[in-house]
Design goal:
The complex is a heterodimer of chains A (about 525) and B (about 200). Chain A is built from 19 helices and 15 strands. In chain A, helix 8 (about 185-200) runs parallel beside helix 16 (about 380-395), helix 11 (about 255-270) runs parallel beside helix 12 and helix 18 (about 445-460) packs across helix 19 (about 505-525). Chain A has about 525 residues and is of the alpha/beta class. Chain A has helices at about 1-40, 45-55, 60-80, 95-105, 115-125, 160-170, 180-185, 185-200, 210-220, 235-245, 255-270, 295-305, 330, 360-370, 370-375, 380-395, 400-415, 445-460, 505-525; strands at about 125-130, 135, 140-145, 205, 225-230, 250, 280-285, 310-315, 340-345, 355-360, 425, 435-440, 465, 470, 495. Among the domains of chain A are: about 160-395, Aspartate Aminotransferase, domain 2 (3-Layer(aba) Sandwich); about 400-525, Alpha-Beta Complex (Aspartate Aminotransferase, domain 1), CATH 3.90.1150.10. The radius of gyration of chain A is 39 Å and the shape is elongated. By secondary structure, chain B is mostly helical. Chain B has a domain at about 50-175. Chain B contains seven helices and two strands, in the order βαααααααβ. In chain B, helix 4 runs parallel beside helix 7 and helix 6 (about 130-150) packs antiparallel against helix 7. Chains A and B meet through helix 2, helix 3, helix 10 and strand 6 of A and helix 6 and helix 7 of B. Chain A: One of its GO terms (biological process) is sphingosine biosynthetic process. Chain A: GO terms for molecular function: pyridoxal phosphate binding; serine C-palmitoyltransferase activity.
Chain lengths: ~525, ~200
Amino acid sequence: MASNMTASASASATQLFNMDYEEFIALLFTMRDLAITQFHRIPGSAIVTRYIKMSYQHDPARSAIELCLVIFAIRYLLAPKYSTQKKNFVKLRDDEIDELIEDWAPEPLVAPLTEFEQEQVEKTPVITGPTGPKVKLANGRTVTNLASANYFNLAGQPALAESAIATLRTYGVGPCGPPGFYGTQDVHIDCERDLAEFLGCQDCIIYAQAFSTINAVIPAFAKRGDYIVADDKCNFAIQKALQLSRSTIRWYKHNDMDDLEKVLKKIDRESRGRELTRRFIVTEALFEDGGDVADLGTIVKLKFQYKYRLILDETNSFGFVGATGRGLTELYNLPATDVDMIVGTLATAFVGGGGFCCGSKEIVHHQRISGLAYVFSAALPAMLATTVSEVIKMLRENPENFIVPLRENIKTFHAALAKTDMLTVTSSPLSPVISFTLNTKKEATVAEQDRMTQDIVDECLANGVLVTRAKRIALPAGMAKGPSWFGWDPAAAIKIHVSTGFTKKECEKAAGIIRSAVTKVVGRRR
Amino acid sequence: MPEGGPARLHSGSVSKGRRRRSSSIIYVEPPETMEQLSDQVALPNLNANWVNNKGAWLIHPICIAGLKIFYDTIPGVSQETSWTLTNITYMFATYLMFHYVQGIPFEFNSGAYDNLNMWEQMDNGDQYTPSKKFLTSMPILLFLLSTHYTHYDLTFFVVNWMALMSVIIPKLPSFHRMRVVMPWSQPIEEVEGEDPP
């Protein structure tokens, strides 16, 4: 009975299963038919059906490839977005952050002054009233001023002051806008034209600040991957410009033309087969460190030979080097157009302000939108531009009134300083900034040299002569010299700024005072 | 002054990492230095950002339709050839634009993008962004269309498939910043500047 029951139960289960299976299949077919009907209702479904039917074409391999492609596309479309930028920070918990903040003791933004620096700050002479050959100090004394770059003694000239005041009345103090944005006035265009004509260039552009001129000019043209070959004694402004340019920089030994050619040859060799890049040679005309003159003749020859562009910084030579003050190109009897970019200052001999860059029309035009200091700085005050134009006019009319007496005074100083063997004049007889180094029997350390030059400056001031010395820009603490630091580390020297405002007698007297100060300080060490 | 002194890691030279091992033909662009990164973000990247602008997607179907119409108007060109030519032209143009040309035509970033092609510049190098998805699906769609209308002829299929692969493979995330060095390619080894004196 029991077994019979079991048998009948199992039979009914099979029957049930069979029935369910058939029903299930029937259900599936119904659903499929339903799906197909629904699918046909979707617009465009006929195209898809036809496409799939046609695409198979008894070619399973090709169909598989296409199917893979479609699967890839769907996967690609559904993948979530992610960043490939590597995050270089560690995720910290809140308590860790608090702990770090508690531990952190900020370093001073500026290191405390050393004793020597403090002394220099205290001793800095303060001039009251206008500058000139003789200046009045804040302590009431009147001293001979050999520390201002007032080479033609035009700083206090009444005619220039009057024209400046007249401009001030018409144009106001400053244009208060960048040159490309309402800052350009007719006097700027006149001044640019005057400078270009004076130098014999196609065009000229004025910058509002002398230091930032070269900083704008070099990065406007040189970019990553470009080559810049530079003299290794270039001044601080040029070094900053080179750094900003992001270019590949090669140095040649100071004024060593054989080394320059060697560097140019090396670049030529290693850049073969590479994309052509822009190439520049950068040099100062009259070097700030040392005061010697660049060998422009050879540099221009090499630049044409190796197809480079030449950027010449005439900051320390424009206006007084050359027979009529047109700078180094005049001295070497070269047309100014041989140099691609001549950069100079209008703040020294021209008693105005700002700087300029002369070159071809294209070179100047490019800077009007790419020279950062031109685009983003307010334009030069109008009265400075008219003053520069006036000085250029005076220089063009009778250059001998300015250049000849300046040369005479430089000569007087050179002759007077040659009387002692305790110093060596390093600057060229063309340079109105006479710089000399000290001759000590024993090699002096950098700190000792700074100490001695400072003592000489103090001694001269005590005897009524104001001179300056070369100062270095100290290496920031914790920074190694090299990779990312372009510094300014000139030789320890005394700098005498000669002016036409002195008679021969005054020059000799001042030179005598300087000489005796040198004898006293260096002699003490010997 | 050091003659051939230590490589400078400042702005001037690209980092020492940008130097190919002589034996390897695959080269992966190293990450940017701090200076390069700051130059990259100095101004918006106008070269790559336009792909996210309004209408930038629409121009692709328009261009494809234009190409198709252009090839159809040439007498003697069959439908098969016309589709294949449209496909090849589109693939070639996008390869040139997204994968071949490196850098930026504008000088806003001091050359900080010089080593990256447009695909790598897009969306700051992020993967699977909407624009990248669109620009990847476009050639796939065009390929499927062109194989369909070439009636699955094997020759046309192979030609179209190769054209498609030339634009799909460089788009893959695993090929990001990767270069295959061919005998005729320019040397990747970077020239180095020198320390200041």
